[in-house]
Design a protein that fits this description.
single chain, 402 residues, alpha+beta, Single alpha-helices involved in coiled-coils or other helix-helix interfaces, Heat Shock Protein 90, 3 domains, 5-stranded mixed beta sheet, 13 helices, elongated
Length: 402
């Protein structure tokens, strides 16, 4: 291999070097690929025909479509093997298609089944396996014969046949385009959003059932007993009314906290600056808040930013052992950036049970980024990015530093 060939390889160019009459390493790899086409294509052809015919024949039964989905999943694995063979012997660099999300991410078995049956990557692999058998017979015959008959011109023949192989791999086994990959990511993110919304609804239901609802039930019972005692024991009835009054105030406090957890009024009315200052005031350690935004972002982005900071400051209060913390929010280009830092014990991990994994999933669902830097004994810095989306309203209040 010449210096120019090495330069091409270092630059990521997967085109083979110019063909020469001499049999170099590239030519021998191409010969090996073309000779192996026949046995590999035979296996793939038999599998594709059996899979399609059997699952198609059973499609009128309950097992037909699941069997076809399983067959398409295995077709994807055959495509992966073919891409690996092409990379090793033909030097073709083909990205792996995005995986199909599992049932837990697509919303259950039947959505997963429908997604798998519509998978364009799997169906293109089936087409690839079906047309490979005649091509494998041709390449095997030509190359095997050429080794004894066409030796002087064999490198040129091999290169021409290998280039057809390269085109077939790129055309049928590579991801269609970036749109296909993006669609797969969005389908996966949709499952995360659905799961997160369901978890939030369960949390609200649990908070209402265990908190305000239980207090209101006790309040109704207490007032009923006070009503019965009103004539025969006025002092006891008055004491029960006083107790009920305390229960009412506690129930109202819990309802306000619950409403604040759903969407705080201060965020709607005054924006992130005031809302994050309110969150910081409830933190158990002093928090310095700096918000530098030219305008208010879209409501959805603003809400996500608020809840990210709120959850992170709760972690600071509960787990960090910090003496102080800081929150910074600013806009950079088309991104909204958030940094929450503390001087605590560090060692925080996204999978450590502090809710960071859920925050990361929420951000990924809207094309966000979540990065945790938390060395042991050196505090924690969490950086989050969200896409900036403008709202129609006027710019928010002036920036203040607390």
């Amino acid at each position: 291999m010449t210096a120019s060939d090495l330069t091409k390889e270092a630059a990521g160019d997967d085109r083979p070097p110019p063909v020469r009459p001499a049999f170099g390493a590239v030519t021998w790899k191409e010969i090996a690929h073309l000779l192996s086409n026949l046995p590999v294509a035979l296996v793939g052809f038999v599998y594709a025909v059996v899979m399609v015919s059997v699952s198609g024949g059973l499609s009128v039964t309950a097992v037909g479509l699941p069997l076809l989905a399983g067959g398409l999943f295995l077709s994807r694995q055959l495509g992966r093997l073919e891409r690996g063979r092409a990379r090793a012997l033909l030097g073709v660099r083909v990205d792996e298609p995005s995986p199909i999300p599992g049932p837990q991410r697509t919303g259950g078995f039947f959505p997963w089944l429908w997604t798998t049956l519509r998978d364009p990557v799997a169906w293109r692999t089936v087409l690839f396996e079906l047309i490979r058998l005649p091509w494998g017979v041709l390449t095997f015959t030509v190359v095997l014969t050429g080794l004894f008959v066409l030796w002087p011109v064999l490198p040129y023949v091999v290169r021409a046949l290998a280039n057809v192989d390269r085109a077939m791999v790129r055309g049928l086994l590579s991801p269609s385009d970036e749109l296909e990959r993006r669609i797969a990511e969005l389908e996966s993110d949709r499952g995360v959003v659905v799961d997160t919304a369901a978890a939030d609804l369960r949390r609200i239901e649990r908070d209402l059932h265990d908190g305000a609802q239980a207090r209101l039930v006790a309040l109704a019972m207490g007032l009923g007993l006070a009503k019965e005692k009103l004539l025969e024991d006025p002092e006891g009835a008055a004491a029960m009314v006083d107790e009920a009054h305390g229960e009412v105030k506690q129930a109202l406090r819990e309802l306000r906290d619950l409403a604040r957890g759903i969407h705080p009024a201060v965020l709607t009315d005054r924006g992130l600056d005031a809302a994050l200052s309110s969150v910081a005031a409830r933190c158990l350690v002093p928090v310095k808040v700096a918000v530098d935004l030219p305008a208010r972002p879209a409501e959805a982005i603003e809400g996500i930013a608020y809840f990210v900071v709120s959850e992170l400051l709760q972690n600071v209060s509960k787990h960090a052992g910090a003496r102080s913390a800081g929150v910074e929010v600013w806009k950079s280009g088309a991104r909204l950036l958030i940094r929450v830092s503390d001087d605590g014990r560090g060692g925080a991990r996204p999978a450590g049970g502090t809710g960071m994994a859920g925050l990361a999933e929420r951000l990924e669902a809207v094309d966000g980024v979540f990065v945790v830097d938390s060395p042991e004994g050196a505090g924690t810095v969490v950086t989050a990015e969200l896409p900036w989306r403008d709202r129609a309203a006027a710019p928010g209040p002036p920036v203040r530093v607390h």
